[in-house]
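BUG: 3D viewer hangs when loading the predicted structure for this chain

Environment: internal workstation, default settings.
Expected: structure renders.
Actual: progress bar stalls at 90%.

Input used:
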Amino acid sequence: MTTDFQQAREALGRRLRELRSGKTQRELAALLEWPQAKVSKLETGRQTATPEDLIAWAKATGHPSVTEELIARLQGLETRTRSWRRQLRAGHRPVQDVLTVEYERTTDFRVWQGAMVVGILQTPDYVRHVFSRMAELQQSPHDVEDAVRARVRRQELLYQPGRTFHIVMWEAALHAGMAPPEVLAAQLDRLGSVIGLDTVRLGIVPFGAQLGVPPANGFWLYDERIVIVEDWHAELWLDDADSLALYRRVWDSLDSSAVYGTQARRLIARARTHFADLA
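Structure tokens produced before the viewer hung:
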């Protein structure tokens, strides 16, 4: 199936091929000091250009005046799909700053996270281990301490009247060994402490619960204005009505399988006992 993102990437490739008119792929590759395969992949939409690639392409083909057009096309392409490779070129801190803007604009959050403790509830030590592991995976700059401070500072929003965080997590997230046992035990203490906050409604989907949908990728719904979906290679930023309605139905289905209050505390306490015994 061809996605909107892929169609836009292919359209950009066709535009690049038009600009190459009068030169062969081999000749352009030699001018740019690139492998010919890169020129081919960009033109056929099998590789996403960087802004630097587009600037060099416009200059080498004798069309420097189209640089802004090409970069605008690229930005439009990435409005929906934001690759981690691009987002993390300068590290995790800039990504956190962009998200903070979305948080501050939002009053009603609906969150699903099945893989780990959701970011807005993470302790500094837990955040530190998450960012360190993701930086290694994505081979991105290690600005871990700056990113930790940015994420933890955003947690001030939990205590601002007028915002509500509807958070649902799978029980597996409580047991994911993303940090040493003592860090995980402290993280679970933190989770227990937020149950009862006026601004937070925290539900846990137990192991063995009957599910209406599979517990797949984590996502955030911001005021039903935009949904951000996490994947290994990219984030999807979706704002069309159909996608928003779909993710709201997914969230509602998972929420219906969750337990709250005393039952949620019991699941958190059970996981904490496990890690406390290992510490």
